[in-house]
Amino acid sequence: MKTTLLKSEDYTRSPWKNGGGIFTDIADAHRAGAKAKDWDSLLWRFASTPIVAPGPFSHMPGIDRLQMVVGGRGLVLRAPGQEFDEREPFTTIRFTGEMEIVTELEAGPVEVVNLMARRGAAEIELSALREPGERPLSAGTHLVYAVSGDCGIRLNGEQFVVSGGNTLKIELPVASRLSFVSGLAVLGSIRLTG
Question: Pfam families annotated for this entry (predicted)?
Answer without folding.
Answer: HutD
